[in-house]
Amino acid sequence: MQNLKLSTKNFIILIAVAYLFSILVRTIWVYQFHDIDAFKWNNQLMINTNDGYGYAEGARDILAGGHQKGDGSFVDSPLSIVTALLVKILPFSFETIILWMPTFFGSLLVIPIMLIARVLNMEYAGFIGALLGGIAWSYYNRTMTGYYDTDMLNIVLPTFTLWATIYAILKKRNRYILLVAFFMVLSNWWYFQSYSLNLSMAGILLLYTLIFDREDMFNYKVLIFMLISLSQIDLYIKVPLILALFGFFHTKSDLDRRVIFSILALSILIIFATGGLDPIISRINGYLFRNSSDTIANEGLHYFSVVKTVREAGAIPFELFANRISGHPITFILSIIGYLLLIFKNRIFLLSLPLVGLGFIALWGGLRFTVYAVPILALSIGYLIVYISNYFKEKKAKWAFIAIATTAIITPNIIHIEKYRVPTVFTKQTVAVLDKLKHIASREDFVLAWWDYGYPIRYYADVKTFIDGARHSGSVNYPVSFALLHNQKASANIARLYAEYKERSLRDKNFTGTLLEQGMREYGKKSVNEFIASLNGDIKLPQKTRDVYFYLPFKMMNILPTIDLFSNLNPETGKNYSSPLFIRAGLIKRDSRSFYLSNGIQITGSNIRRGNSILPIEQFIVTEYDNRGKLHTRTKHLHIGSGIYVIYMKSYNQFLILDRRLFHSTYIQLFVLENYDPKLFEPTILTPFAKVFKLKV
Predict the structure, then answer these.
(1) What is the pLDDT of residues 289-302, one digit of tens each?
(2) Which of 73, 171, 318, 513 is the least buried, fewest Cβ under 10 Å from its Cβ?
(3) Is residue 666 a contact partner of residue 484, using CB atoms and an 8 Å limit?
(4) What is the pTM (predicted TM-score) of this model?
């Protein structure tokens, strides 16, 4: 069975079965949520990844024929370009296309897995690997229906490149080198961050050749095309260069090895001259050798490092690592055994080491890397299963073993998929707020919100934002965090400064520096803390050129402590100020004397009880919406001066326990209490799900 060669027809049938299986599994999420109206907009389920709205905005603007200067639209993104093209040629709505693209594109991974298996003469192993690889835990998470992101092809294209490389080297035909160049160029165009992986694939080919086939000039030819494909030169130069080089090699079959080595040396020089190792060094610094400090310095000032808040960039335990690659630790270990066996039987498979190695970086570099190892280890366990089956004498026993083993490795992933019920980014009610804002605000106006909401806000409201999924370094996050979690006067001042400084930077190329640095210079302050202190008073603000809206969703309450990290520090030293008190808990039950909360806290009379601790309450506030959606508040003043506030959000069945600073913060005062300073803010849209206030200064 191991060496049984399938006909082309039967091989295509197996690919089709694996592809359809991968697609059908991805419909589980659709089935789970198809009847939840809150997850739909324009009669279609919404997507479930924040970043996807950035690409959707780009596609929308391509179709519209333009966008606003400085709005950050992804009009040049390959995903946005492809999406716009599909919207033009397919008879489906925009929302339907972005929802389903990950399903159909991500499932394409089964094709290169099976092509690799075919060239290594192990189609049945490839079929098993395709069934697993197409739906493996981490790969599914990043290519599920609704996960509209570049991930839908980020693994597919490098795996195609690996197949093309193996195929070309084994066949020794010049025309197959074009396949290598094609997929490498396409991979680099689609997702430039794959440059490091692609260069590693070229590097491993060089090592493989030097160790095993140093006299084979064909391998050096393949390497030359890989390097030219990776060079950071414009496509309109790169593509003709590749074709010209191919024509040269194709017509000169008896080239002297010195010529080939000279061209190879020249291609290496081109790589270094056009960027060389810079992208790799940057990624290594960002993920492997990142500063252990919570802050990063920016021109003398210190800001909180956003990497510290990104779970994808942190070390993960082995069990999670194994689960994400193979679905179960046992499956993972067997996959490693299969991989070693496969390399032993087919040393050409050593070329897959960059994919596997990048997957293993996840152990300390972050869980996002696990997907890279998925196709290779899925194919490896398929190989192991078929290899073991060859020891069975009876044909029925062989097939029974293969069926049982395949089911066993797939089942944990199916169980994960059934439980992985990721909600849409926004609900219908929240989107309705942004849709209404779209008809109120100008496209030149700014909406202030945390970076998680940047892309969706721009997509639905068609406005500008200060920060988003691509712009969220510590220096740009600081003003937004400050505006959300400081008093209303300081919030209004910094928001107006941020808006005008942002726009000025678009007009004046000499305008540089962060908001804090620019503010220090313009207001003549000797220190950044002196400038920050001045924001609490009446300062002369720049002339208003556009409106600023504060977008305050209920959902943002989940991440308030994280948001606070970015401005609750001394920018001169990077040291955090005192940790805030912010506790959010659900109400479990109540009686005539006490409220019992979900985190074990008990509120009795004028005190908070947690274990043996008793904290006095300064104010106890109850908020509640009436049938018309109007907010009503009732306040009890208890222990004056205690500095601890309790807010019972009755309509949400939730409690907030917080300190004086956070209680007086703009987010709490405007969203939770609707207690706004009419000189500074004007309510624009008020709903229990999200609220929008217009800045008046």
Answers:
(1) 555 455 555 557 88
(2) 318
(3) yes
(4) 0.92
